[in-house]
Amino acid sequence: MNPPAPRETGGGMHYRYAHATHRGMVREQNEDAIAIAAESGLAIVADGMGGYNAGEVASGIAAEFLLTHLVEDLAQLRDGATRKPTGSDGTQRMLHALLRARIDGVNEAIIDVASREPECEGMGTTLAMLLFSENAATTLHLGDSRIYRMRNDVLSLLTRDHSLLQEQIDAGILTPGEARASINRNFVTRALGVDLIAEPEINEYDLVPGDLYLICSDGLPDMLSDEEIFDLLRGDSADGEADFTASDYDRPIDGRVAEPSVLDEVALKLVDAANANGGRDNVSVVLASVGWPRDADPKNENTADDAPDDRRHVDWRRA
Predict the structure, then answer these.
(1) Rounded to two decimals, what is the model's pTM?
(2) Count of domains in the chain?
(3) DSSP codes, 226-278
(4) Dihedral Cα 280, 109, 285, 55, nearest 10 deg
(5) DSSP class of residue 3?
(6) Cβ atoms of residues 198 and 107 within 8 Å
(7) pLDDT band at residue 133, thresholds of 50, 70 and 90?
(8) CA dist., res. 116 & res. 242, Å (int)
């Protein structure tokens, strides 16, 4: 696996990416799609659905459409903000409006293809997208593909599944453990290509050196508990000790960006573990590491609140 080159922002922050995907142990084909534009700070995971080959078409349209258009859009937005600063709130509103417009466009594109191609009728795709800017991470999602963040040994789920199971959990009908065994685990309530109006959920989070983000299709959390994902992200071995130290992976001490080879290894381990537990679905992961370059001397300490109000902590001990 050859990850995209690291990206550096004007403030000296670096991002490194790794990705892995597999059709799983049951499915005949892989209907997931991954798109990464390191220079734009953009990463996408789309999980297609809707019959033989059609899911692959839908996820492919979503990944290609958004990558093609957003790379140019983001460059123009950032250039405009540099020349005519509107303030962080104004820039954020413009970004969210841009993202919603492109989501509308890709939703229409998928519906159009489905209406013209009989074999694609009923196709759709979930979407999870992560976008880095100078001081923030923007998340956008529809469906049950997820985005997690690891910060200072705390794993947080930044997205809320748009699914029947999540609604049942919220209503107290099912516990998270019962939901993992439910036959309705693949029924999503929001997706691209399903309704005429797409309703993405968009959120902003502070960006701190040392963060590690995980974007994944539901094939990962369907096969692994959050505790198991947490352990794999830490590199925990059988004796409970972390295989990766602060100097090469688990970076909260100095906020240095992870080495590509380590990210590659962890991405593959996540996919392999999902397959080892049954691999009932396609599984795709993108890891995005945020930090200072390894030869840098960071001037700023990590003073971010480890538990901001807008973050959903994963209670992985009971998952």
Answers:
(1) 0.85
(2) 1
(3) HHHHHHHHHTB-TTS-BSS-TTTT--TTT-BPPPHHHHHHHHHHHHHHHHHTT
(4) 20
(5) P
(6) yes
(7) confident
(8) 52
